[in-house]
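Weekly modeling sync, notes
Attendees: S.R. (lead), two postdocs, one rotation student

Agenda item 3: backlog of single-chain predictions. S.R. asked that every request posted to the team notebook include the full sequence so nobody has to chase files. The rotation student volunteered to paste the first one in as an example of the format we agreed on. Action items at the bottom.

Example entry:
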Amino acid sequence: MAVMPPAPPPAPKPNGFHGAVSEFKRRLIEATLTQAGGNRTRAARALGLQRTYLLRLMREFEVRIPPPPGPWRRNNGENGHAAPPEAGMPRSALTSKEKAP
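Predicted structure, as returned to the notebook:
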């Protein structure tokens, strides 16, 4: 008679109520981040959380959503915000429609 190898252990299940709530939170954060395209600020706003608290929860629940690509991720240290076209122009060079208040 052949001996069967032991079955692989089942996936870890949440431990009772608190485990189920933690799993729900993790899935909700993942779904919201996916819906927000990985934008943590928009996801936090959609969840009604501070961005820093969302980041803490992401670490706690080991949520791995890559950050969205964007112009703000530059290696040269710039923040990526484009200056308005009139920023480098003297006020006298602006037309009456373009003049800032």
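Discussion: group reviewed the output briefly. Residues 16-35 form the longest helix (20 residues).
Action items: rotation student to repeat for the remaining queue; S.R. to check formatting next week.
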